[in-house]
Each structure stands twice: as structure tokens, then as C-alpha cells.
Automatic annotation (TrEMBL):
It comes from the Archaea. The lineage of its organism: Archaea, Methanobacteriati, Methanobacteriota, Stenosarchaea group, Halobacteria. Catalyzes the ATP-dependent conversion of 7-carboxy-7-deazaguanine (CDG) to 7-cyano-7-deazaguanine (preQ(0)). The keyword Ligase applies. InterPro entries: QueC, Rossmann-like_a/b/a_fold. HAMAP family: QueC. This is 7-cyano-7-deazaguanine synthase. SUPFAM superfamilies: Adenine nucleotide alpha hydrolases-like. The keyword Cell membrane does not apply. It comes from Halapricum hydrolyticum. GO terms for molecular function: ATP binding; ligase activity, forming carbon-nitrogen bonds; zinc ion binding. It catalyses: 7-carboxy-7-carbaguanine + NH4(+) + 2 ATP = 7-cyano-7-carbaguanine + 2 AMP + 2 diphosphate + 2 H(+). Zn(2+) binds at residues 191, 199, 202, 205.
Length: 230
């Protein structure tokens, strides 16, 4: 086992996972990037952003995996052409159509395989509290349960900690932490609909714009409109 701490980080190309990269590095981990394309609407832009971030931080490794199964299964507006990506509705308590059934379990399974193969002692994911109000696989109880899966499903001498550093945080908290750490948000992408410019009205854009506004900063990427919830 290397003396250097290593962590696999699930890097989507978005702001939360980019902040998780800088958080992991701030905690002394060498970053191993795992990026997946699974048929999401903006997969090319997300890959481009994840790759740019890997170069920016000189990541130890960058693994890009293409999986077709989540798209083939469907039932999400992110992957199913028959379903519209809805505009943000901050007052809704429903699980949004952008929920990809059991996605995080799929992604974390790949990340744990990658971590065990490379003697990594942690897997980082950027999920946060505003996610778990809508997505069941972003809740703290899910990550606690998945830690159990890791513990019983890997070799006896393998110790991998599942780290969700922002799970109790708001999007604004993440933006503030990222600005403090110097995260290059200009090379991140969050829009569910478009690859350029970002739409500004889908769930992901609206929450991101609101987070930057509350953090007292201007989001550096280009938007078709910046109205957020206003």
C-alpha cells in the first residue's frame, strides 16, 4: 500500500463534483477521476469539462466509462428522448423527472471497483442536501447503507471510506467552499438540457445560479437566461 492517500472521485463535470475534487485534495488525497457517460443529454459537454478539470489539477488518473444501460432502461428525462426536461419548481416535493433510477448505486459500484483496483482508501461523491430532498439515492441513509455494501463486498484487507462531504450542505454552502478553494467553475457544466449556452431554467441551472447569487458571486459560465427562481 502506498503511503500517499488516494481517492476516487466521481466527477460529472458539474460544480458539486468539481468542489469535491478540491475538497479531497485539500484533505491530502491524490485524485483519481471517474467520469461516466450514460446517455445523458449533455454528455459531450460534461466529458469535456471533466477532462479539463483533470488537466487543471493534474489528476493522477482519469477513467472515462461509457455505459448504455441507464439510458436503455430509461424513465428519466436526462436519458429518455420521449421525456421533457422540466423547468425548475422550487416548491415541488415530488421526485423530479430528472431522477435516473438508482443511478448513484451504479456509479458508486464502478467507483469502488476502481478504488479497490488502485489501492485507494476513499471514494468521494458531491451529493448534497438539496439533492436528497428530490433524489432518494442522495440521502445520508443511502450512503450509510452503501458503506456497508463496500465493507462486506470487498477483500478483507480492503478499507475504502465512502465520503460525501457536502451531504448536509446547501448548494450555496458548496459554492462558498469552492470559491474559497479556488475551484475553476468556468470549466464546469450543470445544465440538464443544453451544451451551450446553459438554459438557465432547468432544475440544475436554477439551483446553481441561486447558489452563486447567495454566495455573492457571478456564475462564470454562459446562460441563455439568468433568471433562476426570480
Amino acid at each position: 500500500m502506498s503511503n500517499n492517500k488516494r481517492a476516487v472521485i466521481l466527477v460529472s463535470g458539474g460544480m458539486d463534483s468539481a468542489t469535491a475534487v478540491y475538497e479531497a485534495m485539500d484533505r491530502g488525497y491524490e485524485p483519481y477521476f471517474l467520469h461516466t457517460s450514460y446517455g445523458q443529454e449533455t454528455e459531450n459537454k460534461e466529458y469535456e469539462c471533466a477532462k479539463a478539470l483533470a488537466e487543471e489539477v493534474d489528476a493522477t488518473d482519469f477513467l472515462h466509462i461509457e455505459t448504455g444501460h441507464l439510458s436503455a432502461i430509461g424513465a428519466s428525462s436526462l436519458t429518455d428522448d420521449e421525456m421533457e426536461v422540466e423547468d425548475a419548481d422550487p416548491d415541488s416535493n415530488d421526485i423530479p423527472t430528472s431522477y435516473v433510477p438508482f443511478r448513484n448505486a451504479n456509479l458508486l459500484s464502478m467507483a469502488v471497483s476502481y478504488a479497490e483496483a488502485n489501492d485507494c482508501s476513499a471514494v468521494f461523491i458531491g451529493a448534497h442536501s438539496e439533492d436528497f430532498s428530490g433524489y432518494p439515492d442522495c440521502r445520508p441513509v443511502f450512503f450509510d447503507a452503501f458503506q456497508q455494501v463496500i465493507d462486506v463486498g470487498t477483500k478483507p484487507d480492503t478499507e475504502i471510506e465512502l465520503v460525501a462531504p457536502f451531504v448536509e450542505w446547501s448548494k450555496t454552502d458548496i459554492a462558498e467552499r469552492g470559491l474559497e478553494l479556488g475551484v475553476p467553475y468556468e470549466i464546469t457544466w450543470s445544465c440538464y438540457r443544453d451544451e451551450a449556452p446553459a438554459c438557465g431554467t432547468c432544475d440544475s441551472c436554477a439551483f446553481r445560479l441561486e447558489a452563486f447569487r447567495r454566495a455573492g458571486s457571478r456564475d462564470p459560465i454562459e446562460y441563455a437566461e439568468r433568471s433562476a427562481f426570480n
